[in-house]
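Deliverable D5.2: sample structural annotation.
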Amino acid sequence: MPRGVKKSDLPEKTCSTCGKTFTWRKKWEKVWDEVKYCSDRCRSDAKRPMSSKKS
């Protein structure tokens, strides 16, 4: 019998910067409520002023 949870059964969120959906990861287990971004790149882009972002 397989162990664990299917990826399709994991919770999902939408990235605040790019709008992509991303799924729960084990390393986010304790801070899942605080996770807003799908990647380090989106997190750093969110901190940049709007005028310096490329279109």
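Annotation notes: The first helix runs from residue 40 to 47. The beta strands are 12-14, 21-23.
The annotation will be released with the project's public dataset once the embargo ends.
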